[in-house]
Amino acid sequence: MAPRAIITGAAGLIGQYLVKTAPRWAPDWEVTGLSRADLELTETLDVGARIVALKPDLLIHCAALSRTKACEQDPDQAHRINVEVTAHLAQLSKHIPFIFLSSGEVFDGKIGWYSETDEPNPINVYGQTKLEAEQTVLQNPGHTVVRIVLTAGNSATGDRSFVEDMCRTAKAGKNVTLYADEFRCPLPAGVIARTIWELVDRKQPGLYHLGGSERLSRWEICETLLPWFPELKGRLMTGSARDHVGSLRPADLSLRCEKIQRLLSFRIPGFREWLIERSHRGADLWDYLAP
Predict the structure, then answer these.
(1) How many domains does the chain have?
(2) Which residues pair with 265 in a beta bridge?
(3) Is residue 264 a part of any domain in this protein?
(4) Which helix (H) or strand (E) holds 63?
(5) CA nearest 101: which of 202, 224, 27, 14?
(6) Can you give the CATH number for the domain in which 38 is found?
(7) What contacts 95, CB < 8 A, 6 or more positions away?
(8) What pTM does this model have?
(9) Could you give phi then psi for residue 89, rounded to 5 degrees?
(10) What is the pLDDT of residues 220-246, one digit of tens each?
(11) Residue pLDDT, tens place only, 172-210
(12) Are 77 and 41 within 8 A, CB to CB?
């Protein structure tokens, strides 16, 4: 029988791409995707029974409360979903590989180009819960944490990626304010999915960073997207993070990814490079079949 992989958060952007790319990048695995509709992960007894019944050989944990505002509004719920659920799943997976998708938000964003050896210092509830979850996961030397930052792609619900959020706002007739002094290293979800599946094959657990090779401001990211999303034209407004009102947001979450790059069969692209290459090929913008 083929080994079985369980993917939580299968209705989310990365979970969705992990499931649909499995036939290409993980053909030897039988993949079971679990969304919240399939299993409420905060129901401890139900989760334990379901995982035991499925008998997985691998668990990739993508589910999370990832909206910063939602975490700030209900920190108890954020802790329950991001920390307690992760700890429970890690415990259920103590004898098998367990991969936890974390976030660059564990850093305060003051310096940028963070490596795995840099000291985390979260400045919001989301980052704090992700860091607590990481610490629990890495107590098991056979488990893995992958920190990501900003993900592009198309989700089934149309509301999971930052690109979808911007387009929805623009279509509603509203302006989109983008900070020219807030930096990220975005990647398409398909690249992240391929990387995770290759990481599974390499069997080298630990802590990894995964981001695009280009450090771009929010403004630069969206300017790059304009040719593909005409609904954004006339709706983009430049702004400064100094004027931000609301939950604290790290200014620079660019990540150094040499550690994970050494394990991969392909080079992690930069975001603009990805878009330009697809334009030249006439390929679907978020095509996951090749980097």
Answers:
(1) 1
(2) none
(3) yes
(4) none
(5) 14
(6) 3.40.50.720
(7) none
(8) 0.95
(9) -65, -40
(10) 999 999 999 999 999 999 999 999 988
(11) 999 999 999 999 999 999 999 999 999 999 999 999 999
(12) no
